[in-house]
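Please check this.
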Amino acid sequence: MPMRVARSRIAHFQPPASLHKISGEENIMSVITLFSGNFCKDKEIEAALVAKTGCRLITEDEIVAKAAALSNISQGKIKEAFFEKTSIFNKFTHEKERSIACMRLAVAEMLAQDNLIVTGFPAHLIPKYISHVLRVCSIAELKYRYEEAEASGINQKEALRLIKENDKNAAAWVESLAGNKDPWDNTLYDIVIPMGKTSVDEAVALVVEKAQSPAVAYSDASALAVADFLLAARVETALSKEGHNVVVTSTAGNVTLTINKNVLMLKRLEEDLTAIAKKVEGVKTVTTEIGKGFYQTDIYRKFDFETPSKVLLVDDEREFVQTLSERLLMREMSSAVAYDGESALNIVDEDEPDVMILDLKMPGIDGIEVLRKVKASKPGIEVIILTGHGSEADKKVCMELGAFAYLHKPVDIDLLSKTLKLANEKIKQQGV
């Protein structure tokens, strides 16, 4: 794999005086982003670049922590945005999209500083139109990565699992942002460094040389591009906090909102989006438009923070539970479905619902045992028992185990809706 410089930029502008004052130096080094495959000496390169340039290292964890502070989402949940597998609840909650919006804002705010090295998955959130960013990728052939993993004490089987998992996550992440299924494609970067054929010192020397090139110099134009990026990120985050998921761009204070999901009352949505965006400081005008995804079959839904965002229905009566899910959807409450206790516990481990509506009598693991295990492992999940066969003794056991409510079939849908909202209020109070 030869070393590649993906492209060159011709325009060269001198940094404005205000930027010189911020840095206190004669020249401002370009922002460097580094995206790497695991076992490609990324940590060694990061440390050597910091030592060589004196730039501040912005890690993936730092951006995630800042994004969590900007949102009502935990750091662990925000990190799930990097995973190939998406939560079964995400189509209801848009939690992945909200996480990305807050990470984008975190990155945009950091770019107001100079002399930065940004690493990890969030490096891809910096748009291509910001020209003073040198985008670097370090990657190697599988054989080299296996050897690096084994040198660190990891056996080959585990190394293979970790590399495959890393590459799948990287591919899904890059495709979601750039539409490119190859996370190591040289069109995504200015430099792709083959670590199997390049030492850390050689890699660092090349990055430093290219970072000082006029092609990626700080300029008036790139400073304005950062301002546009920051305003768009602020608007996107403001919209996401109100439950909306749209594409936001900005040019000199003029904001464009692109709706890519079908919606029944388009004009009403456009009015809502415009009203929210106009409240963001720095916004001059707001324009809405329909994107190419608008004509697909999916229906746009605003995320409702007043109702439980992740409801799991657990019942072996398939027709009943599917009908119940549809009736809840008519009341703007979306839910996922499991038909047995074991499947429900797997979903709890992987996706952690907010509220579970649980039948008692099921084949295999019964409802009481599911309740006991859920409350032992994830006590924050509120469990509503909904059964047609329970006794007073069952009710006593369930309430002692921590059930939120105990309801009987056939259930009044308004009563169930009210109970779900009360459970959601309890969850929100505990999260304060």
In short: The chain has three domains: 4-220, 243-303, 311-431. Residues 1-26 have pLDDT under 50 and may be disordered. The radius of gyration is 25 Å.
